[in-house]
Specification:
The complex is a heterotrimer of chains A (about 280), B (about 140) and C (about 280). Among the domains of chain A are: about 70 residues, Alpha Horseshoe (Serine Threonine Protein Phosphatase 5, Tetratricopeptide repeat); about 90 residues. Chain A has 15 helices and no strands. In chain A, helix 7 packs parallel to helix 9. Chain B has a domain of about 70 residues. The relative contact order of chain B is 0.10. Chain C has three domains: about 90 residues, Serine Threonine Protein Phosphatase 5, Tetratricopeptide repeat (Alpha Horseshoe); about 60 residues, no CATH class; about 90 residues. Chain C is about 80% helix and about 0% strand. Chain C is built from 13 helices and no strands. The chains are: A mainly alpha (about 280), B mainly alpha (about 140), C mainly alpha (about 280). Chains in contact: A-B, A-C, B-C. At the A-C interface, helix 1 and helix 3 of A face helix 1 and helix 2 of C.
């Protein structure tokens, strides 16, 4: 009987004394909680939980999940390092793929991806993902659809068509020549801005410069020479600004189109979730 | 009620980002921030030329611009744009940028290509028009 | 053998009872983090508790604690989100009322005037909160106060005995405020007069000066039958400075009122001892 009492005490006491460590904070429970947080997109808390478990018993999949959390939080440098360290682990292939994906996202430096070969991937799904990533990198660096022979092998027929369209746009972007814009405006005030599709500013330039030029002409004709020179100077001032503005307007037009195209392509790829096989994204419901 | 519940659950990810960085206690101020004009009337300058320009601008602001109403739809205003342009480039380029801005100020047509600032003005920073800018923040 | 069986039985019997103190301790832990102002961690631990609380015994408490933590961190949208979850998981009338008021307080801080108004209206219509009407009135007063409607705030606070201090403060602000339309009206009649009313004398003198000058030049041009000049000076200069004069009278009155509002709100935040958002 005394033994029994002792036993009851013994079985009860540790759970009371070390509750936080022993029950809700066991590695299994922490991992379960972390998985839940990951699905809730609460990535910082999730990665901290994974890290706590990983400190007790090291495990590739924990480290992989930490890297994934960092990638999701746009902590690209951290994520890249984590994936790099996992390159020879049991999740090596997935890590390599995500390493390249992070690298693709982080600095738009595509050489590393373009120089790598798909043969390092044995899993068929990962190989296709990598090929798609590589193609995207090549498209962004301006290779034409004809140069990308492997394109139709790695995308469905309908998607390949769209991707080819993007490749075409990247290789031959719609551009306006800044010099031509400046020249047009020098000939006809505002024409350069109209050329860069800045219609409102172009028409305004034409009207404003034209008005002052007319006032100048009118005053010279009436032999009001001083006023004539003042209006002529104003017209010249506005048109000089207009020529400069047309040059810059063409440059900005090019930059805007470039940014638009990049955004369109990125969001298209994102919507297709091409580079990450679904099983990697965790098992969230 | 159930629909409210569900919509709440799904909307969660909308602000999951809040906790992607640790945060501390931060008391909300009762006071409301007033959007004062950001004009600096200080004459502090790095060189005599800048001092001269600033004196001219401040005089213009004091006697004319501050009492002739709200005529410029842009942020920064035309005179500030001129000062900032000259400072960011040189007197020649700055003047050309100012002349261009002046014409754009007259534009009564479509102005949808400007971002609206929180002061409800059209964002039109000089960086967008500098020749040296490689990648300006367009829009 | 007998001993082993006993041990097994004991473990099975004790197991569910252990789970209980476990959650209770976790709750105490989360609360202690909150008390130490470690709000981010308090949320983590409250979430952990909620995750393992399969019977949902702590749902209300955890949601409320998370809401309060976000509120302390100034993350008001998140706070409302969790208070709403707490509202849904509340079990008693007192719990329901408390969370509804928390939501209203946060929304007052967010200056969501019409939303708060709507929420208070709904609560006033609700039979369950019939006895709480003075509390609802009290928050309605704060809502007006944050909406810059000191007159209405004073009226509402006047109906509550315990809110006499607030009533007096609101009345005082209402008295001190500049009338924007009066300022503008003065300047319509005499350029610069509105600016004198708001105490912006230099601007007032400048406005008056420009208007007198360009008004004179315009009249002079017309009387000398230089119609084109008169029209040009009148529209491009006189009208411009006359409009500027009106804009400034309005702007200065609004600015002065904003300063007064902010000073009062700041005073209330730092010195008012009663319940506040």
């Amino acid at each position: 009987m005394r033994r029994l009492v002792f036993l009851i005490l013994l079985s009860a006491s540790p759970s009371n004394l070390f509750s936080q460590e022993s029950e809700l904070f066991t590695p299994e429970k922490r991992k379960a909680f972390a998985d839940y947080l990951l699905c809730e997109k609460d990535y910082l808390r999730a990665s901290e939980e994974y890290e706590a478990v990983n400190n007790v018993n090291q495990n590739d999949s924990l480290a992989y999940n930490i890297a994934l959390c960092n990638l999701k939080m746009n902590e690209f440098e951290k994520a890249k390092n984590c994936f790099f360290q996992l390159r020879n682990s049991s999740l090596g292939e997935e890590s390599k793929l995500l390493y390249f994906k992070t690298s693709y996202l982080v600095n738009q430096n595509f050489d590393e991806i373009a120089d790598s070969s798909a043969s390092r991937f044995k899993k068929e799904e990962l190989k296709t993902s990598f090929m798609r990533l590589k193609l995207a990198a090549q498209i962004k660096s301006g290779m034409t659809a004809n140069e990308l022979s492997s394109l139709s092998n790695n995308f469905d027929e309908s998607d390949a068509k769209i991707v080819k369209g993007f490749a075409e746009n990247f290789a031959h972007p719609k551009r306006k020549s800044p010099l031509a814009a400046a020249l047009f405006s020098a000939m006809v005030p505002g024409a350069g801005k109209i050329y860069t599709k800045n219609y409102g500013d172009g028409i305004t330039s034409f009207i404003v410069t034209g008005l002052f030029a007319f006032l100048s002409y009118d005053n010279f004709r009436a032999h009001h020479n001083t006023r004539g020179w003042i209006f002529a100077g104003t017209a010249a001032f506005f048109n000089a600004g207009n020529i400069y503005g047309s040059y810059v307007s063409a440059r900005n037009y090019n930059l805007e189109r470039e940014e638009e195209l990049n955004n369109e392509f990125d969001s298209y790829l994102n919507s297709k979730n091409y580079f990450v096989p679904k099983e990697i994204e965790g098992n969230c419901k | 009620m159930k629909i409210v519940w569900l919509s709440l659950v799904f909307s969660f990810s909308l602000f999951a980002q809040t906790d992607w960085q640790r945060w501390q206690k931060s008391e909300i101020n009762y006071t409301e921030t007033v959007n004062d004009s950001e004009r600096s009337y200080s004459l502090h300058a790095d060189d005599p030329f800048e001092f001269l320009l600033k004196t001219a601008a401040v005089t213009y602001w004091f006697f004319i611009s501050d009492v002739d109403g709200d005529n410029c739809p842009f942020d920064p205003s035309c005179s500030s744009f001129f000062l900032e342009s000259v400072k960011a480039s040189n007197i020649f380029e700055g003047t050309l940028m100012f002349a261009d801005r002046f014409t754009r100020d007259f534009n009564v047509f479509n102005r949808s290509n400007y971002r609206i600032t929180n002061k409800r003005r059209l964002a039109d920073p000089p960086e967008k028009y500098l020749l040296s800018t490689v990648r300006p923040k367009v829009k | 053998m007998k001993f082993g069986k006993l041990l097994f039985l004991l473990l099975i019997l004790l197991k569910p009872e252990f789970a209980q103190p476990q959650l209770e301790k976790q709750w105490a832990y989360a609360e202690s983090l909150f008390a130490q102002e470690k709000y981010f961690n308090a949320i983590t631990e409250a979430k952990r508790l909620a995750f393992f609380d399969t019977a949902n015994q702590y749902s209300f408490k955890t949601n409320k604690l998370i809401g309060e933590s976000y509120s302390q961190g100034g993350k008001l949208a998140e706070a409302v989100h969790y208070f709403t979850k707490a509202e849904i998981t509340s079990k008693t009338k007192a719990e329901l009322f408390a969370t509804k008021i928390e939501i209203i307080k946060v929304n007052i801080l967010r200056r969501a005037f019409s939303l708060v108004n709507h929420q208070l209206n709904e609560m006033e219509k609700d039979e369950r909160f019939r006895t709480d009407s003075s509390s609802l009135q009290y928050w309605r007063g704060w809502n007006y106060l944050f909406h810059d409607d000191w007159q209405k705030a004073a009226e509402v606070f006047a109906k509550i005995d315990s809110a006499a201090t607030l009533k007096n403060i609101c009345e005082e602000v209402q008295k001190k405020k500049y009338s924007v339309s009066f300022a503008k009206g003065l300047s319509v009649v005499l350029p610069g007069a509105g600016q004198f009313y708001t105490g912006n004398y230099v601007s007032g003198i400048l406005s008056l000066g420009w208007n007198v000058l360009f008004g004179y030049l315009t009249v002079q041009a017309f009387s000398a039958e230089r119609v084109f000049d008169g029209m040009a000076i009148g529209t491009m200069l006189w009208l411009r400075f006359y409009n500027g004069n009106l804009t400034n009278a309005e702007k200065f009155a609004e600015e002065k009122n904003n300063i007064l509002n902010n000073e009062t709100l700041d005073y209330l935040q730092k010195n008012y001892q009663g319940l506040k958002p």
